[in-house]
Amino acid sequence: MRILHTSDWHLGRIFHSIHLTDDQAYLLDQVVNLIPETKPDVIVIAGDIYDRSVPPVEAVKLLDETLSRILLDYRVPIVLLGGNHDSPERLSFGNQLLKRAGLHIVSQISSDLGPLVFHDKYGEVHFCAVPYAEPVLVRERLGLPDISDHNQAMLALVQHIVRNIPSNARKIAVAHAFVTGGQTSESERPLSVGGAGNIDAGCFDGFNYVALGHLHQPQGLAGEHIRYSGSLMKYSFSEAAHRKSINLVELDREGKTAVESISLSPRRDLRCIEGYLSDILKGPQNGENQNDYLMVTLKDQGAIYDAIGQLRQVYPNILHIERPCLTVDGYLSRPAGDYRKLSELELFGSFYEQVTGEDFGEEQKILLADILEYLRSKEREVAL
Ligand SMILES: [Mn+2]
After folding, report:
1. C-alpha distance from residue 18 to each of 121, 169, 320 (Å)
2. 330 exposed, middle or buried (CB, 10 Å; 0-12, 13-18, 19+)?
3. Hey, what CATH topology would domain 2-263 get?
4. How many angstroms is it from 175 CA to the middle of ligand 1?
């Protein structure tokens, strides 16, 4: 069996005020065009289909077109998983109807969750697809009062589904989760505020391949058969060095897997460059694309009139400038820390301490973490 494994499309993503839909369409066209060449039996999209629970119209349209091309033009079944950015209810609209056309949307937690069964010339392959879910939801829906963290929730869901898979069957797990040991980037929203959002790779013992979503850097974990395909494109400057790709997984008769990573080429790359303004204004060197999305770090000291405006003449898609050497009143001012790398909890804590002059204590931290968790589940529109 051949499986194309992708995840974290984040359709509708806006990055530094730029709508990325056209870039996403360009990449999804590449993904669809891989089908005649790679001849997959199943396509797995392991969560974070949309960037937010109520996606913009263009994002819905792009997903509709892409799924239709895969199913109507090529008749390849799809396993579409809900991630932490997706609204489980909205994503699963029409899932009973769409199942008949080969689109298997798995985004809601219920005790009816069971394996999806596909076939190749050697027989059945069972897919255990576990959408992202808050532990409290899993506890309630499965009626297991002891579940208190993500690891317990994942283990319970996997066991719940595996009960209905014959023990000698070849099996594939699909999940949207943070497996311990994975490398994070800045565009992933933490799965738990202040608590443990990670799960143990041991949850997937006995699977022939584990198709993961959530982490945006393509990577393999524990024995290489547990893999993140990574996101469709770079969604933060911390990903500038990533090579985004999609995994082609070949599963043989015995259940052994071979994985080939197929690179995706974006319409515009996302890059970080550093230098003096006068040098950068000389324009692109060595065949670099001047339309790439850029973060520019200027080494110049002192004030510069409208640096971004000047740079935009040469690089129209410059998104952000850093001025680490900007001199204010003769002092070299450097930011104490990069606020963009702080969690909401840390940001609020530092704000609280600045305003009140008092420590942001443990008790307040726990209270705020609860409020943030509540707001997140509200945002995903998950009815607890
Ligand atoms: Mn994601």
Report:
1. 46, 46, 12
2. exposed
3. Purple Acid Phosphatase; chain A, domain 2 (3.60.21)
4. 12
Percent of the chain with pLDDT over 70: 95
Q: What's the one-letter identity of residue 221? A: L
- Contact between 160 and 139 (Cβ < 8 Å): no
Taking alpha carbons only, the member of 258, 1, 8 closest to residue 125 is 1
pLDDT band at 355 (very low <50, low <70, confident <90, very high): confident
CA of 157 to the centre of ligand 1 (A): 21
What is the pLDDT at residue 331?
A: 44
Q: How far is the CA of 336 from the centre of ligand 1 (A)?
A: 28
* Ion ligand 1 residues within 5 Å by Cβ: 8, 48
158-214 per-position pLDDT tens digit: 999 999 999 999 999 999 999 988 888 888 888 877 667 899 999 999 999 999 999
**Using CA atoms, how far apart are residues 42 and 76, in angstroms rounded to an integer?**
6
- Ligand 1 centroid – CA 125 distance (Å): 27
> What is the rounded distance in angstroms from the CA atom of residue 134 to the CA atom of residue 141?
11
Q: Which two tokens stand for residue 222?
A: 């524990």
Expressed in angstroms and rounded, the spacing between residue 307 Cα and the centre of ligand 1 is 33
**Domain residue spans of the chain:** 2-263, 270-334, 340-379
